[in-house]
Write a structure and sequence with these properties.
With 214 residues, the chain is an alpha/beta fold. It contains eight helices and five strands, in the order ααββαβββααααα.
């Protein structure tokens, strides 16, 4: 393995581990609501659980997955990642963590500001990240981490995840989420530019749904 490939490999590992290591204590102290393999911290349950369960209940292929929903400071609204150590315990023992941004100084979009229908689209998108991870072996999951190290790779992953979300029947909700972020939210122009570059635009989402001609 070349030096550059070696460094990129461990950068991918760091990406995966960095998402979980910083927050394990914070949410553990809050207590959880649990349904099967899903655990949701009390703050999320109080406000968002009903909306989250709309897509979750339909994705029956993911009900066997151990999923935790926690809050932490992020550079985006939500993020779904596998627990780093669980990757090496076999697929049946994997843990997936969905983080929700609770940083009041965030210059993007906080979940509390998102309209309900758009919020459901975001929840479905994060669940599709988990479906993607679940379809991969350890090396494939690490490959995803490596892709996130570059803007081109990140765009490729997010476009693919948006495509999965549309195929799962949540294209309209995803459109509402994208349109809200870019055209209605109070997010900074820098944040909106990042979103428009990495994720599908509202018009692209509609074209993928065959509602308009590309």
């Amino acid at each position: 393995m070349k030096v550059r490939e070696f460094l990129m490999f461990f950068a991918g590992l760091f990406f995966l581990s960095n998402v979980t290591a910083q927050t394990s204590n914070k949410s553990d102290k809050k207590g959880y609501w649990q349904k099967g393999c899903l655990k949701v911290d009390s703050a999320f349950k109080k406000t968002y659980l009903d909306d989250f369960m709309l897509p979750y209940d339909q994705f029956e292929d993911l009900h066997h997955c151990r999923i935790r929903v926690k809050t932490k400071k992020l550079k985006t609204t939500m993020a779904a990642r596998p627990g780093f150590l669980s990757l090496f315990l076999g697929k049946r023992n994997r843990l997936y963590i969905i983080h929700v941004n609770d940083d009041e100084n965030f210059d993007g979009v906080l979940l509390s500001d998102v309209p309900q229908e758009a919020r459901i689209g975001l929840f479905a998108h994060e669940m599709m990240h988990i479906r993607d991870y679940e379809s991969r072996k350890v090396t494939g999951v690490i490959e995803r981490g490596l892709q996130y190290m570059t803007k081109k790779g990140k765009k490729r992953v997010e476009y693919y995840t948006d495509s999965l979300t549309i195929a799962a029947g949540y294209g309209v909700n995803l459109f509402q989420w994208s349109a809200y972020v870019l055209h209605e939210s109070d997010a900074s122009e820098e944040y909106k530019a990042f979103k428009s570059e990495i994720y599908m635009s509202p018009i692209t989402i509609l074209s993928k749904m065959d509602l308009v001609k590309p």
